[in-house]
Amino acid sequence: MKIYFLSGLGADKTVFQFLDTPYYEPVFIDWMPPCQNESLPAYAKRLQESFIPNDSIVIGLSFGGMLATEMAKLHPTLKTILISSAKTSKEIPGFYQLGKYLPIHQAAPGALHKWFMLRSKWLFGLKDPASIDIYETLIKNSDPVFNRWAINALLNWNNSVVPDNLVHIHGTHDKILPYKNVCCNYTIKKGEHLMVMDKAGEVSTIIRQVLKEKFSLPNAFS
């Protein structure tokens, strides 16, 4: 059984390396270059059509979860799990909207964005030295052109539809997308934004539970 993974903004497949995956085959989707002024829904549609079959299981982390939401809206046969993400624009903190009117991210050089992200790692809740090293490597290797587009696409995302084929896992201590703003199906106590790394055991257990109970895939565990 294959499960398709979409990472967060500025991240890649390495953020998922701590998950327990012996009962399925993980497929990590790399980002495609965005088209000029491409919307988040349009990019999600193009990414899904290129790499993900319509009846697949998709797990999206943070920004990847927003893309997965748009995919789930298009294809009711998709089984979608969001981790540390938002299903609708209302679940994104209102103060982020300042970026629409003060688009500093559009003018700031990539080096400045990386500098800021490296000095803001406390927002992601990472405490383990190995996780911190992975995070710093990800930021240093991230694509500033893609990041700039993704931030703009996120700020202009206006989704209000929550598809039925979606399950949301969120942590109570998430500083990037605060728990109080979201309505999730599964809660991880003291989980922060990158709990997929430092609480990978709990996240893995819930994923397995969702596949078996919510998505009715008992054969995955034989």
TrEMBL record:
Alphabetic keyword roster: Hydrolase
- Record flagged with keyword Hydrolase: yes
Q: Which GO terms describe its molecular function?
A: hydrolase activity
Give the matching InterPro entries: AB_hydrolase_fold
Which protein are we looking at? Alpha/beta hydrolase
